[in-house]
């Protein structure tokens, strides 16, 4: 009976730790959602700019703003709730990414935990750069997609669908920038070698396209290419850097083994 209890305890401890991390993440996401609800108007004004200047339309009392429109009685409320939730998820991403890593960290050795600090320091700025990159390419993506509209047809876009596309695009690009951070961190702690990362590159590329096809707000090839290209580029960059790190590590280890053999070699004693 005692051995069974000892076997169960680590699992129970892991489950308690997981519950604690999930609860902390949920609280921070909820707080960020409150901020998204409060700053709803500035957020949608900023996100709507690639299609129309919402502030000018509101100040002028215009009945519409470009191609954007809200449909249904519950449309405005659903729109504000969605903006608040997705904004909270994006803003709090550095915190819940840290909680994810903190859940894994207890299983690491002391040297690996020092490496995990690099992950925490790199994850936030990389995610911020990804969000900025997503917002930067947003007008290009919107313009390219609108170009497929026939000349004789008017394109009326539901505000709810538009913001879902925008926020999911920004979140996906932000997470794409985290890919090299995860891969290089696993390489630094010795969990993955550079050759192991790059060898199944075809499977990685296929998996990235599959992930983008599932997560993409639209199924058109252009948006899939825009979303998958950063992931593929960062994958190969991370793999290349990991290979160089492995070469330096192997060279250092070989030098240490050589020095150890010289020390252990018997020395002749002159009489």
- The secondary-structure class comes to mainly alpha
Number of strands: 2
Shape: globular
The separation of the N and C termini measures: 66 Å
* Strand residue percentage: under 5%
Please write the string of helix (H) and strand (E) elements. HHHEHHHEHHHHH
* Rounded mean pLDDT score: 75
Residue windows where pLDDT falls under 50 for at least 5 positions: 1-9
In order across it, which strands form the biggest sheet?
Answer: 1-2
**What share of residues is helical?**
over 70%
Please indicate the count of domains. Answer: 2
Radius of gyration: 25 Å
Major sheet:
2 strands, parallel
Counted by DSSP, the helix tally is: 11
Could you describe the 3D structure shown?
It is built from eleven helices and two strands. Helix 4 (75-91) runs parallel beside helix 7 (159-176), helix 5 packs antiparallel against helix 6 (110-146) and helix 10 (201-215) packs antiparallel against helix 11 (221-264). A two-stranded parallel ribbon has the order 1-2. By secondary structure, the chain is an all-alpha fold. The protein has two domains: 1-38 and 69-107; 109-149 and 157-264, no CATH class.
Write a brief structural summary.
With 271 residues, the chain is mainly alpha-helical. The protein has eleven helices and two strands.
Q: What's the SSE blueprint?
A:
Elements: H1 2-38, H2 40-47, H3 54-60, E1 68-69, H4 75-91, H5 93-104, H6 110-146, E2 157-158, H7 159-176, H8 179-188, H9 194-198, H10 201-215, H11 221-264
Parallel strand pairs: 1-2
